[in-house]
Write a structure and sequence with these properties.
Structural class: alpha+beta
Strand order of the largest sheet: 5-1-6
CATH topology: Outer Surface Protein A, domain 3
CATH architecture: Alpha-Beta Complex
CATH class: Alpha Beta
Strand content: 25-35%
């Protein structure tokens, strides 16, 4: 399964992360530095494994430590329509 940013969302960099506007619901969301790294990688289709490897490498954390948190974030983003499964 791969994930991609929804075409119904626009985002912009803010001081310590990213602000996202869901154009369907007119709701704003924000992500911290790690969330922003994940969001940016989903400009192109990315799998949970791809995202886990990238975050583990970028932040020097074991993949098994961050995988669950990334999965939770992806589930939340899906629930809110920020990303789609492709």
């Amino acid at each position: 399964m791969t994930y991609l940013v929804s075409p119904d969302c626009v985002s912009c960099a803010i001081e310590d992360g990213v602000a996202i506007l869901d154009l369907k619901s007119n709701t704003y969301f924000s992500l911290d530095e790690v969330g922003t790294s994940i969001w940016d990688r989903m400009a192109n289709p990315a799998s949970l494994d791809d995202l886990t490897k990238a975050v583990a490498s970028e932040y020097d954390v074991a993949p098994e430590v961050c995988r669950g948190d990334i999965k939770d974030l992806l589930d939340d983003m899906l629930k809110n329509g920020l990303i789609q499964v492709v």
